[in-house]
Design a protein that fits this description.
- The protein folds into two domains: 226 residues, Alpha/Beta hydrolase fold, catalytic domain (Rossmann fold), CATH 3.40.50.1820; 87 residues, Lipocalin (Beta Barrel), CATH 2.40.128.
- It is built from ten helices and 16 strands.
- Strand 9 and strand 10 form a beta hairpin.
- The protein starts with a helix and ends with a strand.
């Protein structure tokens, strides 16, 4: 594929002129207001039982608007339109206004693509450039349970939510001479993740400005890397009742407002209670970390002092708030 892509990029002007000749992707609409380009791989129509990997591409600020044709200017939609063939579905939505709204990407996936197309839910990938790089980081942080791996290019995000990507394979790209989206924006996210995510990769293009996506998307290795990954699934372990019992008690987040949560042993897990209101059943994924859904990346981690006494619980998510244990 690499030689094919390079040849296409060398003849980009001719390729753009002849866009309509290839016709590999179609313009689609979801709930009237969301436009997107759709590419189906060879064999999709013939094999009606196979589930296919899906790559969602988020464009940059320059492609914002109501004309779906301009989304074909850069990135995956350009490669698709000029004849490059991929072994996966490619969906390229268009944002009508500046900035990507992660809930709209989620809704497109859950309410349209999973319904309309034969998508493998364990092999959904997200990538984007510039504004789309921001959209990739933020959508993945808000809904990590939906994606198997992400490739954010010359973007950035909120490092306070980085812990929600601790199980996400990530390959980040940025040019260190970028004068439109500062290189440090990617560096901040990478620094927030490097100690908690062993599947993080960061490629720095030295001496390269904002356009680092052309060489990134022309590299076969990123697609091979994506397809190696499947969506992360939590796996419950059995915990000794003595360990579970040590986590029982009341934990407080806000001293002034007295926001308390109580945990009680229930089966092989811990049930949360808010006053007399029954909450979530948390299941152990390690000795001190618990989850409540097979795919959700929301965890709680019990903290201990040097003597092994439970001091509180950290809610791993945005800002990782700490709840201090106040009673048994």
């Amino acid at each position: 594929m690499t030689a094919q892509i390079k040849k296409i990029l060398l003849t980009a002007v001719l390729a753009v002129i002849s866009i309509s000749f290839f016709g590999q992707q179609t313009a689609e609409k979801y709930i009237i207001t969301t436009n997107y380009l759709q590419y189906l791989p060879d064999g999709y129509e013939q094999d009606t039982t196979k589930l296919w990997p899906l790559v969602i591409f988020l464009h940059g600020a320059g492609e914002t608007g109501n004309d779906i044709e301009i989304v074909k200017r850069l990135g995956l939609p350009l490669l698709v339109e000029v004849g490059v063939k991929f072994p996966f579905i490619v969906i390229s939505p268009q944002s009508k206004t500046p900035g990507w709204k992660s809930d709209e990407v989620r809704d497109l996936l859950l309410n349209e693509l999973f319904v309309k197309l034969r998508v493998d839910p364990d092999r959904v990938y997200l990538t984007g450039l510039s504004m789309g790089g921001y959209g990739t980081w933020n959508t993945a942080m808000n809904y990590p349970e939906l994606f198997a791996a992400i490739i954010p290019i010359c973007g950035g995000g909120y490092e306070g939510g980085a812990s929600r990507l601790r199980n996400m394979p990530i390959w980040c790209f940025h040019g260190d001479m970028d004068d439109q989206v500062p290189f440090k924006n990617s560096e901040v996210m990478v620094n927030a993740l490097k100690d908690i995510n062993p599947q993080l990769k960061f490629t720095v293009y030295h001496g390269v400005g904002h356009d680092c996506w052309t060489r990134t998307y022309s590299n076969d290795s990123i697609y091979n890397w994506l397809l190696e990954h499947k969506r992360y699934k939590n796996v419950m372990i059995e915990l000794d009742n003595k360990i579970l019992s040590s986590y029982q008690g009341v934990y407080r987040y806000n001293e002034e407002k007295k926001i308390d949560v109580r945990y009680e042993v229930e089966g092989n897990g811990l049930r949360s209670w808010y006053g007399d209101k029954k909450g979530i059943l948390w299941l152990p994924k390690s000795v001190n970390e618990f989850y409540y859904d097979d795919y959700r990346q929301d965890y709680m981690r019990f903290e201990k002092d040097e003597n092994g006494n439970v001091t509180g619980v950290t809610s791993l998510g945005y800002g990782d708030p700490f709840y201090r244990k106040i009673s048994i």
